[in-house]
Amino acid sequence: MSEQTPRPEPDAARRDEETTDDERRRRRRARRLRAHRGAGRVLARPGHLETLRERLAPLADAGDLYDLDERGDVYGNGVVAALEERVAALLGTEAAAFFPSGTMAQQVALRCWASRTGNPAVALHALAHPVVHERDALSQVGGLRPVRITAEPRLPTAGEVRAFPEPFGTLMLELPLRDAGFVLPTWRELTELVEAARERDAVVHFDGARLWETTVHFGRPLPEIADLADSVYVSFYKSLDGFGGAALAGPASLVEEARTWRHRYGGQIFQQFPTALSALAGLEHELPRLPGYVAQARLVAEALREGFAAAGVPWSRIHPERPHTHEFQVWLPYDADVLAEAAVRQAEETGTLLFDGHWGERGPGLAVTEVGVRGEGLEWSGEDVRAAVADFVARVAEEAAGRSD
């Protein structure tokens, strides 16, 4: 009897398959990033795609933001304290505390409120960041109990808050709700939602990672928006293109308590001046441009809709139809792999990258991606977008036909 190569154990075979899938995803992402860097025309070019040298260069000329001859910060003084004061002033709150991450900032805020209200239940959306992206940190680390108000692709309603069948100490609202399509309620809906929480003796916390760009939709300045909540978290990298970091803003007593928990969570970092300087740069240079990005995103969204219709795409959806912020979703009736390949090929062969994000499968022959518009996107006209759509759809058709052969 001839000697045979033993078959791998099922678990080993599964691990090999998973590794292959992981490598395939990494290769696709690396190719997409190369295409993005090589493209001459994009709708957005976020800073995290730059090299270290490119990323650090602007900080050497940041003397207009902060005295660069001052000694570096130590455990949160100096430039970090200056950033905290700037954020509190922009949001109209008594105080603000810098955190190395938004995940930490919100966990701390919510556990502080739970201690004060005596109720560990946090009411939030089923698509909220702590539910989807934080590996159950609220319960596993903070001892809190998330309860889901709704799973609909919109913010909760005042009626849903009033009718929720159990008490909760804090209502957390993500503004905008990213995984539902960067959606926002109307100003009236938001004020009614906050009032409903107050009627139930609950405090309100805003997950405002992208709160900076909500002023256009609400038609209100930042202090008026932030004033609705008992506390607000804001990010320095999602909209402002900083290196990272976040701030928790609210009453001085809450912020002081949060500083204690920040230390306990390991967030009392020795020096954070690069991140703090990049955040100040974002507040100085990007924050004033965000309303223009929102306006341009609406132009791009309309041109995309027109382009898909003209190209004969049987069905497409821009969500929201009129973007609430400078980011929105695009849904198309094709396999995600087909769309991803067409997008990369368009960039590689024409220098125009229309869709730079990941395409997610949402069912057989249905995929979605996110589109964001930043400074580079301001140069696009509606005709530029429609022309890019026509070229992209032609490549999608070629790719789909090639895979069916």
Describe this structure in words.
With 405 residues, this protein is an alpha/beta fold. The protein folds into two domains: 235 residues, Type I PLP-dependent aspartate aminotransferase-like (Major domain) (Aspartate Aminotransferase, domain 2, 3-Layer(aba) Sandwich), CATH 3.40.640.10; 116 residues, Aspartate Aminotransferase, domain 1. It is built from 15 helices and 13 strands. Strands 2-8-7-6-5-3-4 form a seven-stranded mixed sheet, sandwiched between helices. The longest helix is centred in the first third of the chain and has 29 residues. It starts with 9 loop residues before the first helix and ends with a helix.
Quick structural overview:
This protein is α/β, with parallel strands linked by helices and 405 residues long. It is built from 15 helices and 13 strands.
Features:
405 residues; alpha/beta; Aspartate Aminotransferase, domain 2; Aspartate Aminotransferase, domain 1; 2 domains; seven-stranded mixed β-sheet; four-stranded antiparallel β-sheet; 15 helices; 13 strands; globular; Beta-eliminating lyase-related protein
